[in-house]
Design a protein that fits this description.
single chain, 202 residues, mainly alpha
Length: 202
């Protein structure tokens, strides 16, 4: 009967994480190979995808780091070596991604410099300023929406309070009417009794 903790593959759970990590690494490496061929927005999008893949790889490494502690010490050395290899590969991908992300010319185009002097560079600065203005306007609209929402909430609370007062008033009026009906019933009975006595007297 096979031992569930295989001495070559490590624990089943560790092996599962390892297989998944290999798929993520292959996807990550593919994305890293594509990034140098891109520029502008497609490059930014590819970098974001690579960052997500890198985060997933690190999460799997964390799970593997925990799980390998459950492997018997007699076979753990091989597992530790495999883990270190995977960790080294992921670190290499991280360094490569960082290098690709810091290439400003590829990210923003050949017009990018820290000190724009040409018309194209001034146009780029103007676009950045315009983007900032749009962001400010969007933030102001968001603040206005939040203010309106708060005001609407206050009005709603006031309306509910008014309705509660009206409900209490109606209930009090209903109680008064019921009490008055009781008085009327007793008065009618009294009058009827007096009428009968008058008839008898006649």
């Amino acid at each position: 009967m096979a031992n569930p903790l295989d001495t070559d593959a490590g624990s089943e759970l560790f092996g599962s994480y390892e297989a998944e990590l290999k798929l993520v690494q292959a996807d990550l490496n593919q994305k890293l190979d594509q990034i140098p061929e891109l520029s502008g927005e497609p490059r930014k999008s590819a970098i974001r995808q690579a960052e997500r893949a890198l985060d997933e790889a690190n999460e799997l490494l964390d799970q593997m780091r925990i799980e390998k502690q459950n492997i018997p010490s007699s076979t753990r050395s091989k597992t530790n070596q495999r883990f270190r290899n995977h960790e080294s590969d992921v670190d290499a991908c991280k360094r490569k991604l960082k290098s690709l992300s810091s290439d400003r010319t590829a990210l923003f185009g050949s017009r990018y410099t820290d000190n724009p002097t040409t018309d194209d560079q001034l146009e780029q600065r103007q676009q950045l300023l315009s983007g900032t203005e749009r962001l400010d306007r969007s933030s102001q609209r968001l603040r206005d929406s939040q203010r309106i929402a708060h005001e609407t909430e206050d009005i709603g609370r006031g309306t509910l309070a008014d309705l509660q007062v009206q409900r209490e008033t109606i209930q009090h009026t209903r109680g008064t009417l019921l009490q008055s009906e009781g008085y009327v019933d007793r008065s009618v009975k009294t009058l009827r009794g007096m009428a009968r006595w008058l008839q008898i007297g006649l």
